[in-house]
Design goal:
The complex is a heterodimer of chains A (517) and B (251). Chain A has 517 residues and is α/β, with parallel strands linked by helices. Helices cover 56% and strands 12% of the residues of chain A. Chain A has 3 domains: 20-113 and 212-281, 3-Layer(aba) Sandwich (D-Maltodextrin-Binding Protein, domain 2), CATH 3.40.190; 117-208, D-Maltodextrin-Binding Protein, domain 2 (3-Layer(aba) Sandwich); 314-466, Orthogonal Bundle (MetI-like fold). In chain A, β2 and β3 form a beta hairpin. Chain A starts with a helix and ends in a 5-residue tail after the last helix. Chain B is 39% helix and 24% strand. Chain B contains 9 helices and 10 strands. In chain B, α3 (104-114) packs parallel to α5, α4 packs across α5 and α5 runs parallel beside α6 (179-194). Classes of the chains: A alpha/beta (517), B alpha/beta (251).
Chain lengths: 517, 251
C-alpha cells in the first residue's frame, strides 16, 4: 500500500508553510496582497508583460519599498478574502482600495489613509428617470456594486435595491446590458470603467467620501509604523501626488491628507473626510476596458491560460492520488474491518459526501489555523493554499472513490475468494492477486468520471488565492470583457486535459479486461 | 506419510437457519481411496465437501484430516488447520471458478508462484506440465472465456494439482458440462486415481461411480444412509430411499 506516501505528504505540507508575518528576517520581501482581477487603476496585469503589474497602487508599493529599503512582492488574493487571509498570516500587507470601516479597524491594523475616495453613481447615457441616488431609489432602480465595500454599505444604509458583484467591471457591463439601473462604485473605478464609455454617464456629484488605508495583521505594529512614516514622507515630497496625477485620480479631496497627516494615526482614522465637489471631468484617463480588450491578444492570454492549466493539472493529479490511496483504505476498512472500523468508514463517506467542497476548503484553509491557535499549536496548521486544496479534494474525493472501489470489489463473486482459498492463498494475497485486478475493470470507468469531474472542481480553489485555469480565465475576461473568445480557448484547454483521460481509461479497461467478454 | 490422508468426519451437524443440512454425519475416507458421494439434491453433499475444506463452518462435531482437526469454534488453531488441509486437498468446483483475468497457464501457475514461492520459470514449467497432462498444452495462453466448459474444468484440475495435493475434493465437477465434455473431465480423474490420489467425488454420474469408485456413499437428509463397494450399493441397495434415488437417476 502507498499509505506511507500520504503520511509523508502531510508533515511536508505542514513544514512548507511558514507564516508570512512571523519571522523577523527584514531581508525577506514583504508580501503584498491585492486582487489583480480587473483592478485598474489600483492594480492589474501589464498588458504588454503579463508577469508584471501596473496601477497606482503598484507604483505606490514601489515608492514604499524604496522608503523602507525592502522589496515588496505582489500576491494575487481574492478581495473578499483579504481580511481572513491577513488573520492567517498569508501576507504582510493588504493594499487594494481597502476602505477604512469600523469592522476593518477591529480586525486589522490600518495605516494612515493614503487616498480619499468618493463614490460615484453611474447610469446609462439615456437615463432620464433619476438624477441622484435618492431619485434612483424612488423609482425602484436596482444598483450594482462591489461586495463588501463602502458603496455596498451605503446602499444597505439607504435601503436601495442592490446587486453585489465580485469584481468591478461586470456591474458596468450589466448596466449597459440593461440588467441594472445604475452602478455605485468608488470614483477611481468609475473614472476608468464608466467615464470613457459613451453609453454610460455620471449621475450627480460624487458622494460619501472615505479613506483607503493599508491593512496589516493586528499584531504587526512595527511594520505599520514604518509604513506610516514612509507614507508621510511620500506625501511631503510630492511623490504621492505625482503618482495619483499620473493615474488621473488626484483631486482636491486629496488635499485633506496634509491636514490628516499632522494627527496621530488613530485620530486621523477617526476624522471623517469632508465631501468636496470634484470637477471629475477634468481628469484625463483612457478607457481601461477598451485598452485592455485591445491589448489582450491570443499571444497575450494564451500563455497565461496555459500556466493556469498547468496548476489545474498538478492540483488534480495530486488530489486524485490522495483520493485514490485514501479511498482504497476506506473501502477495505468498510469491507473487511471489524465493526467499529466499518462504522467509522461509513461515517467518513457520509460526512465528506454530504458537505459542500467549498465549505471544506474554507475550513481546511481558514478554520484549521484557528483550531491550531486555540489548541496552542501555533502556526503548525497554516497550510499553504496548494496543500489545503490537495487535502480538501483528496478528503472529499476519497469518499466517492471508496464507494466506487467498494462496489467494484463486492462485484467479484464469492467463488473467486473460495477458489483462491482452496489453493492456499491468504486473504490479503487473494485480494491483491485475484480480486483487485478483476475489480479494477469495474472501477475504472466511474473512477475516470470522478477524475474528469475533479479537473473542473479544482476551479473552486481560486477562492483561496490559487490561480488555476478558471481563475485565470476570470481575471482575463474581467479586464477585457471578452467572455466568448477567451471562454472558448479555456474550454478547449479543459477538453485537451480531460478527453485524453477518457481515452486512457478505455485503453486500460481493454488491456486489463482481456479475460472478459 | 500416507496416514496424513485419512479423512474422518464424526457427528458433524450443519444448519442453515432452520434447515439442518448435515445431521450428525459420520464418514471415513482411507488414503488413496476414491469415494463417490451420491444422493438426492439437498442431501448435503456439497456442504460436506465445503466443511472438510474449511470453506464452510459447521455447528457440531469434528473433522480430522490427518493430524489437522476442524471444530465448530473460530479459533486460530482451526484456521491454521483449515490452511493445512487446503494444502493437502485441492478443491474443484461445479462452476470452475477459474480466474478470468489470467490465462490458463497463469491460472495454474499463480498459486505455486505466490503461495509456494516457486520462481516464475519453475511455476510456469510446472503449470505447462500439468496442462499437458490434462491435454491442454496448446491452450496455455487462452483466457478462460475462450475455453469450453470441459477445458475449463480440466484447467481447474491442473490448477488444484499444481499445489501437489494428496487428494482432491470434487464438487459435482461435471454437472455444468454437456455429456460429450463430461468424459474428458472424468477420464482425467481416473488418471489421477491411478496415480494414487485420494478422491472424494460428489457426483451424479452413476456410470463413473461404478467404474472408478472404490466405495459409494449415499447421502440423504444430511446422513449417510448407505456405504459400500459400488456393486453392493448400486445393485443391491438395502435402503428403500437408495432404491428410489437410483431409479430416478438411472431412468
Amino acid at each position: 500500500m502507498k499509505v506511507w506516501f500520504v503520511l509523508l505528504l502531510i508533515p511536508l505540507a505542514v513544514a512548507g508553510c511558514g507564516r508570512a508575518g512571523d519571522d523577523g528576517n527584514t531581508e525577506r520581501p514583504l508580501l503584498w496582497a491585492a486582487d489583480a482581477e480587473g483592478g485598474l487603476p489600483y492594480i492589474c496585469r501589464d498588458e504588454n508583460d503579463p508577469d508584471r503589474f501596473v496601477g497606482f497602487e503598484v507604483e505606490l508599493a514601489a515608492a514604499l519599498s524604496q522608503e523602507l529599503g525592502r522589496p515588496i512582492e505582489p500576491k494575487q488574493y481574492e478581495f473578499q478574502s483579504l481580511g481572513a487571509g491577513s488573520q492567517r498570516g498569508d501576507f504582510d500587507l493588504a493594499m487594494n482600495g481597502l476602505e477604512v470601516t469600523p469592522d476593518r479597524r477591529k480586525t486589522l491594523r490600518l495605516t494612515r489613509p493614503y487616498y480619499v475616495y468618493t463614490l460615484q453613481l453611474v447610469a446609462r447615457a439615456d437615463e432620464t428617470r433619476f438624477r441622484s441616488l435618492d431619485e434612483c431609489k424612488a423609482v425602484g432602480g436596482v444598483v450594482g456594486t462591489l461586495e463588501d465595500t463602502a458603496a455596498q454599505r451605503l446602499l444597505d444604509r439607504m435601503q436601495v435595491k442592490e446587486s453585489p458583484y465580485g469584481n468591478q467591471t461586470e456591474p458596468y457591463k450589466d448596466l449597459e446590458l440593461g440588467r441594472l439601473d445604475a452602478v455605485l462604485l468608488d470614483l477611481p473605478i468609475a473614472m476608468y470603467y464608466a467615464k470613457p464609455n459613451e453609453n454610460l454617464k455620471f449621475v450627480g456629484q460624487s458622494l460619501d467620501p472615505g479613506y483607503y488605508a493599508i491593512g496589516l495583521a493586528k499584531d504587526n505594529a512595527a511594520l505599520a509604523g514604518q509604513l506610516d512614516a514612509a507614507l508621510e514622507r511620500l506625501l511631503e515630497n510630492g511623490q504621492l501626488r505625482r503618482i495619483y496625477e499620473k493615474w488621473g485620480i488626484w483631486n482636491r479631496s486629496q488635499e485633506q491628507l496634509f491636514k490628516l497627516y499632522q494627527m496621530p494615526v488613530e485620530k486621523a482614522l477617526d476624522t471623517p473626510p469632508v465631501l468636496i465637489a470634484e470637477d471629475s471631468a477634468a481628469a484625463d484617463v483612457r478607457d481601461a476596458v477598451a485598452a485592455s480588450s485591445e491589448a489582450q491578444t491570443f499571444s497575450y492570454y494564451f500563455p497565461l491560460l496555459l500556466q493556469g492549466a498547468g496548476v489545474t493539472v498538478a492540483l488534480t493529479f495530486a488530489s486524485m492520488f490522495v483520493a485514490m490511496v485514501l479511498g482504497m483504505v476506506i473501502a477495505t476498512a468498510r469491507l473487511y474491518g471489524p465493526r467499529p472500523v466499518q462504522g467509522a468508514a461509513i461515517l467518513y463517506v457520509e460526512f465528506f459526501r454530504g458537505i459542500p467542497v467549498l465549505l471544506l476548503l474554507f475550513t481546511v484553509y481558514y478554520g484549521l489555523p484557528e483550531i491550531a491557535k486555540t489548541c496552542g499549536l501555533g502556526a503548525s496548521l497554516n497550510l499553504p493554499a496548494w496543500a489545503a486544496a490537495i487535502i480538501t479534494f483528496g478528503l472529499d474525493y476519497a469518499a466517492y472513490e471508496s464507494e466506487i472501489y467498494r462496489a467494484g470489489i463486492a462485484s467479484i463473486p464469492k467463488g473467486q475468494w473460495e477458489a483462491a482459498a482452496s489453493l492456499g492463498m491468504s486473504r490479503p494475497m487473494t485480494f491483491r492477486l485475484i480480486i483487485l485486478p478483476q475489480a479494477i475493470r469495474v472501477i475504472l470507468p466511474p473512477s475516470t468520471n470522478d477524475f474528469v469531474a475533479l479537473f473542473k472542481d479544482t476551479s473552486l480553489v481560486s477562492i483561496i488565492a490559487v490561480v488555476e485555469l478558471t481563475k485565470q480565465y476570470q481575471m482575463l475576461t474581467k479586464s477585457s470583457l471578452r467572455y466568448l473568445e477567451i471562454g472558448l480557448v479555456t474550454a478547449a484547454l479543459y477538453l485537451v486535459m480531460s478527453v485524453p483521460l477518457g481515452y486512457l481509461s478505455r485503453y486500460l479497461e481493454k488491456r486489463w479486461g482481456k479475460g472478459h467478454a | 506419510m500416507p496416514d496424513d490422508l485419512h479423512i474422518g468426519v464424526s457427528n458433524v451437524t450443519k444448519r442453515f437457519a432452520a434447515r439442518t443440512v448435515l445431521d450428525g454425519l459420520n464418514l471415513n475416507v482411507e488414503p488413496r481411496q476414491t469415494v463417490a458421494v451420491i444422493g438426492p439434491s439437498g442431501s448435503g453433499k456439497s456442504t460436506l465437501l465445503r466443511c472438510i475444506n474449511g470453506l464452510t463452518a459447521f455447528d457440531a462435531g469434528e473433522i480430522c484430516v490427518g493430524p489437522h482437526v476442524l471444530r465448530p469454534k473460530h479459533t486460530p488453531e482451526v484456521a491454521a488447520a483449515a490452511r493445512s488441509i487446503r494444502q493437502l486437498f485441492g478443491m474443484i468446483f461445479q462452476d470452475f471458478q477459474l480466474f478470468p483475468h489470467l490465462t490458463a497457464v497463469q491460472n495454474v501457475a499463480e498459486a505455486p508462484r505466490h503461495v509456494l514461492k516457486l520462481g516464475n520459470t519453475a511455476a510456469r514449467q510446472r503449470a505447462m506440465a500439468l496442462l499437458e497432462r490434462v491435454g491442454l498444452a496448446d491452450h496455455a495462453d487462452a483466457f478462460p472465456r475462450e475455453l469450453s466448459g470441459g477445458q475449463k474444468q480440466r484447467v481447474a484440475i491442473a490448477r488444484a494439482m499444481a499445489m501437489e495435493p494428496r487428494g482432491l475434493l470434487c464438487d459435482e465437477i461435471t454437472s455444468a458440462l454437456d455429456p460429450e465434455l463430461k468424459t474428458e473431465v472424468l477420464s482425467v480423474l481416473e488418471d489421477l486415481k491411478r496415480d494414487g490420489m485420494t478422491l472424494l467425488v460428489v457426483t451424479h454420474e452413476i456410470g463413473f461411480a461404478r467404474r472408478a469408485a472404490d466405495r459409494i456413499v449415499v447421502l440423504c437428509g444430511g446422513r449417510v444412509i448407505e456405504d459400500g463397494p459400488p456393486s453392493q450399493v448400486l445393485d443391491e441397495p438395502k435402503e428403500a430411499r437408495t432404491q428410489q434415488f437410483l431409479r430416478q437417476v438411472l431412468s
